Structure formats: structure tokens, C-alpha cells
Amino acid sequence: MSSSPLAILHETFGYEQFRGPQQAIVEHVVAGGDALVLMPTGGGKSLCYQIPAIARQLDGHGITIVISPLIALMHDQVGALHEAGVKAAFLNSTLSFDEALDVERRLMRGDITMLYAAPERITTPRFLDLLDDLLARRQLSLFAIDEVHCVSQWGHDFRPEYRALTVLHQRYASVPRIALTATADALTRADIVERLQLEEAQHFVSSFDRPNIRYTIVEKKDATTQLLRFIEREHDEDAGVVYCQSRKRVEEVAQMLCEHGINALPYHAGLDAKLRQTHQDRFLREEGIVMVATIAFGMGIDKPDVRFVAHLDMPKNIEGYYQETGRAGRDGLAADAWMVYGLQDVVNQRRMIDESPAGEEFKQVMRGKLDALLGLAEATDCRRVRLLKYFGETSHACGNCDNCLEPPQVWDGTEAARKLLSTIYRIQQMSGISFGTGHIMDILRGKTTDKVNQFNHSTLSTFGLGAEYSEQQLRGVLRQLIAIGGVAVEGEYSTLCLTEGSRAVLKGEVPLMLRASLSGPAERKPKREK
Ligand code: ADP
Ligand code: ZN
């Protein structure tokens, strides 16, 4: 058999041609280079390491170890590889001692092309011995690290066991590595590179756009009724996922949907493992099941025809939102990402951050990420442009999100934004230091607090200049400023600072439009008819 990547693509996988950056990635890895691959869900990440694994074994380099966080995912992949005639196996807790021993023997005989293993297994002495032995015989070909964002505490799914993967570059420095993820913002990427010492890795970043997904974010009024209407109107008998924050809520919502004749099932970590499995199997096999779930559900579930993903509660950040909504429409057909959000969500998320046992720096980053998500939720312009920008991509208004399809009523927050920026500027000039949101709001609204007195800030020319706005309005303005980079939140105390982008807003070159609904009285336009 030929070890050329294209021949393997044809003969083993039965595909005509490589998709997007696959070929470049495969060639780079076959040649022994390290790679960091960012590709959206459904983009075809698996082939990026599976083809190199086969090619490199044919060339005499030996075995590829695939690190994967989920047992279900391993089983699916290994099953699919078997069907394609590839020698794949896994080592995880579902194997009996004898079965595991058998896999180990095959491994030493070179009778395996790809071995899937969970990260916690990699660092066991027994496994390290196996790897040492393979290395000594030059039969350790490649490490593939799937879902690599799990290594970063800034990612949305940190798994401490991923930290142990530092052993790969420390102990097996000569073995090439390919790391893959479908979700990582700039901070998470940098953290992955640092944690796993992937400085030498070439980055392959695909567009994160999922053009077939229509993004809609509506204000939460009566969430369950809104959900019911959304499903009845737009997704009668479709398969979908509804995410809720708590187990209790999952149960309630599933029951409510069932009472209205929708085929809904609950899924959360509190359910008996067997029942969870049954629900998951039914979701995958039967048509038109709506899974009501906590975020415990989803990773590694490859169901192509999920027609909608609904969020009844706001996720923690944009990465989570992107990952969860990304489970819709993997088949490329039209799908909906629909979310309701309200101020209470924001309060809850903030409290969860505040009350978490994490360090202050961590909390600051989490608050910043939450703000970015709020910026997305409150945006009045194209959601997709915002979403992609968060991942470092520039794009144009998409015509397939709620804001593009039905522009919301807005109020002009430019003047408020200028007052806010001037305040930050003047305080900085007067006191030589920056302050946090609360203090800036107090000055704008003309409140004489202890702090205002202490710093003599009531003498500022902007003191009380924003009295006509509610605190909620001003906070909305601030969030939008942060979202467009007109203000930076810095340091341990989350102080507000001017940026390069501030000037354009101050000069009035960049209008700042806010949702009318957020400021109270104005009504949203009537819903578009389907
Ligand atoms: P990801 O892991 O990035 O979510 P997968 O590796 O599961 O994506 O691939 C998604 C789907 O696309 C799979 O069904 C896979 O078989 C298919 N696929 C991947 N690459 C190609 C290709 N070059 N040609 C045709 N289909 C492909
Ligand atoms: Zn749009």
C-alpha cells in the first residue's frame, strides 16, 4: 500500500479530495512537524492525524498515540477506523485486565496503527514504560492531542488531567505532536502553546464560520414559553438540544415540553448512568428528539442533523457558546442557534465567578470573557461578525442572524460613550490612576460617595454629566465599548483604561448603537413571520 496521503484518503477513507487545510496539515505532520490545528466542529479534524498515523507507520515510524478526553468518543472513532480496515485500539477503564493486556501486547508487536488513550492513562508508570520501550525501538511515531483546549484553564472546558501531558514534550521531545481543537480564543491558544511547549508548532487556523447556522439572541421574558413557541413555530418534529444551567431546570423544562407534545428527554450528570446512556442512544437513533441538558451533554456527540441548539441560560463565555451552538447543523443544512438571555443570567454568572474559590487573576479573566459574551448578546449589528471577530476573524454582515434579518430598534449611545470616556480620561489626568466601573458610574451619575470625596472627584467637569442615564444604560454602553475595544479592563482591580480605539469614539467617528429594549420603554419590532 502507498504511503502517499492522497492514496490513503482514497483507498482507506474513500474520499475524493482533501477539504480546506487538511492536505497542508497532513503533509506537515507526515514530514514530522508539530502542528496546532483550529478547525470548527465538522471541519474534518480527525483525518488530520489519522492519515499521518497511517502514512508514518507505512514509512516505518511506528505507532501513533491519540489522546482523547471521552470514552464514548474513543469508541466511536476506533469503531469507524476498524470499518475502514485500520488497526486501531483504545486503552481505557472499560477494558478488563486481560483485554488491556492484549492491547499492550499488540502494541509491542507493532500490530496497531493508532492507540487511543485518555490523558490520565498516559502518565501512569505502566503506560510510560510502554512508551519508553516504543521510543527506544524508534516505534513511537506521533502524538495527537484532541480537544486540546482542555489543557487551558482559560478554555471553557478545563480538565486538570490534561496538564499531565507536559510529559509528552519533556520525556519524548523527539516525537512530533499535533494538537487539535474546535474552540480557542487568543488567550486560550497562547495558553495551549505555553503549557504544552508548542512554540515550534505551525498553526493551522481555519475559518470558524458556520454559515448554515442562524444566530438569534432574544431578551428573556418567560423563557419556557418563548422556547415552546420557538420550537412549535420553527422546529416542529426536529431534533434539537436545549441547554439549561441546573439539573432541576433540565427536569422542569423536559417535562414542560413533553406536556406540550414534544418528544423531549432530560440529560444531566445527576441521572443514573444507564438512563443517561439510554437517552443519549435514543437521541442519536430516533428522529426528532429534543434533548434538554446541562453542558454535561454534547462533547463527542456526532449527530449530523441537529436542527437547533437553544440556550435557556447564558453560557459562561463565547467559547462555550460557540462550542455548544456548533453542535447544530453539522450536516451543513440550515440550523438555528437560539438563546434567551436576561439580566438575571448576568447576575448569576457574575456571582458564580465572585464566589468561586479561584484566584483574583482568574476571576478577572472570567469576568472579561463574560463581558465579551454580553457584548455579543447586546450587539445591534451582525452577530456572526462579532462572533468571528472574537476568534480573530474579520467578516461582513451575514444576512443570516437575527440582527441582519430584522434590525433591532436602537438608541444612540454615542454621547453617553463620549461622556464615559472623558470621565476615564479626566480621572486619569487628575489622579494619575485608573478606577473601576462602579466609581466611574458614580461620577457620571453625580453620586457623592466616600471614594468620590476622598479623591475630590466631584470637581471633575464630567461629574453628574450622565445623570440622565440609568446605571443599566451606562453599563450597557460600557459593555459595548469593551466589546468594540474602545475601553480596556486592566489589572487586578479591573480598572477601566482608554485604548487606541477610544479616540474614534470620542471624536464621534464610531457611532455606538444600543438595543432600545435594554433602556426600557421602546418596543422591539414585531417578529418576522416565517
Ligand atoms: P471534526 O472532528 O472536525 O468535528 P470530523 O473529523 O468528525 O470533524 O469530520 C466531520 C465529517 O466530515 C466526518 O463525517 C468526516 O468523515 C467528513 N470528512 C472529513 N474530511 C473529509 C473529506 N476530505 N472529504 C469528505 N468528507 C470528509
Ligand atoms: Zn448577521
From TrEMBL:
Alphabetically sorted, this entry's keywords are: ATP-binding, DNA damage, DNA recombination, DNA repair, DNA-binding, Helicase, Hydrolase, Isomerase, Metal-binding, Nucleotide-binding, Zinc
Which EC class heads this enzyme's classification? isomerase
List the catalysed reactions: Couples ATP hydrolysis with the unwinding of duplex DNA by translocating in the 3'-5' direction
Cited InterPro entries:
DEAD/DEAH_box_helicase_dom, DNA_helicase_ATP-dep_RecQ, DNA_helicase_ATP-dep_RecQ_bac, Helicase_ATP-bd, Helicase_C-like, HRDC-like_sf, HRDC_dom, HRDC_dom_sf
Q: List, alphabetically, the CDD domains matched.
A: DEXHc_RecQ, SF2_C_RecQ
Under which EC number(s) is this enzyme classified? 5.6.2.4
Q: What is this protein called?
A: DNA helicase RecQ
